[in-house]
Write a structure and sequence with these properties.
Layout (H helix, E strand, L loop, with lengths): L1 H26 L20 E10 L4 E3 L5 E6 L6 E2 L4 E5 L2 H25 L7 H26 L9 H30 L3 H26 L2 E3 L4 E6 L6 E2 L9 E4 L4 E8 L12 E5 L2 E19 L14 E9 L11 E7 L3
Length: 350
């Protein structure tokens, strides 16, 4: 036991020291740089501005939303489908609104019927009874006048009492009033509906029509339609899901016009002063520097914004602001897609 302690521990210590020395020496060798997954693009201009570009639709990428929240009953398009402006993209449940429309349609029909009834007055069958009452009143008046005339023609005033004479005079006055009333009723019946009643009925009809139109609009809002002619880029909603109105981090659908692509290039604010609108530009596909396309200048977004599109390069500055420049190209010449990054070089004055 004593021999082990005397010789074993020193040997173990020397072995540990030798192993540590070997590991330190091994780690001191420089690590060979890893080859890039793809050779980077080479700038085609002697004086240039380099920037990262994001491919987007010519119309920009339109995030489709819904004006009202509701349960999705059907999705009418698929990813990649070409749509025309006004085509239905998806439908929301509109059963309650359809039921309300039926109620308002019934009220509209009632208002139409009431107006038609007033406009058809007088009915042919309404006139004979009123005319008969006029004839009756005139006959009663004639009889009362005859009775008064006979009483006034009596030579001997003692043959008829004053009360009887007054009664016959009052009977004539009553008959005249009844005759005038009957004639007025006949004129009113012939005139048809009263003008204010007609106007009130027409106003009620217009109100009913407006309520129906408003409900039809509510039903139409349950159908989300394409806002432009374009291509469906993404579909993030399915039947049975609940579509929430308002802005969303994940749009229900993405729509864009990709007949001609745009590249949104971020130019560092330190290089922004060197950029001249209309300068030549060339874009390279990430992963294959042999695939490139000349770009056509579209416009400059004149508002410098914080950098949001990151390339992942170790030398990239993230705490900077960028000027965004839009270029366009024909998508038929390059196999690129919306959202893909490209390396862009823009010619600049020396």
């Amino acid at each position: 036991m004593g021999m082990i302690l005397k010789y074993g521990l020193p040997i173990l210590a020397v072995s540990g020291f030798a192993f540590a020395t070997w590991r330190v020496a091994l780690g001191a060798h420089p690590v060979a740089a890893a080859r890039p997954a793809a050779e980077p693009a080479t700038a085609p201009f002697e004086s240039k501005i380099a920037g990262a570009g994001i491919v987007e639709a010519r119309s920009q990428n339109i995030a489709i939303g819904t004006a009202v929240s509701g349960l999705v009953t059907s999705v009418d398009v698929q990813v990649g489908a070409r749509v025309k402006k006004g085509d239905a993209l998806f439908h929301l449940d509109d059963r309650d609104k359809a039921a309300e429309l039926a109620v308002r349609m019934s009220a509209l029909e009632s208002a139409k019927s009431e107006l038609a009834r007033l406009e058809s007055l007088p009915r042919p069958e309404d006139l004979p009874p009123v005319a008969a009452r006029v004839t009756t009143a005139e006959s009663v008046l004639a009889d009362a006048e005859q009775q008064l005339l006979l009483a006034d023609g009596v030579q001997d005033k003692r043959a008829i009492s004053i009360q009887e004479l007054d009664r016959r005079r009052f009977a004539v006055q009553t008959a005249k009033a009844q005759t005038e009333q009957a004639r007025a009723d006949l004129l009113r019946t012939k005139a048809g509906a009263w003008a204010p009643d007609l106007e009130l009925s027409r106003a009620a009809l217009r109100s009913a029509e407006a309520r129906v139109a408003a409900q039809r609009t509510e039903i139409e809002r349950m159908v989300v339609r394409a806002s432009i002619d374009g291509t469906v880029l993404a579909v993030n909603v399915r039947p049975g899901e609940f579509a929430q109105a308002g802005a969303s981090a994940t749009p229900l659908m993405l729509l864009g016009d990709i007949e001609r692509m745009h590249v949104r290039v971020d130019i560092d604010e330190n290089d922004a002063w060197r950029f001249k609108p209309g300068s030549k530009a060339l874009a390279f596909v990430r992963g294959n520097r042999e695939l490139s396309v000349p770009l056509e200048f579209v416009r400059v977004d004149p508002y410098v914004i914080p950098k949001r599109s990151l390339t992942g390069e170790s030398t990239e500055r993230v705490d900077t602001r960028v000027l965004q420049v839009l270029f366009s190209f024909d998508p038929a010449v390059l196999p690129v897609y919306v959202g893909q990054q490209m390396d862009v070089f823009v010619e600049s004055p020396k």
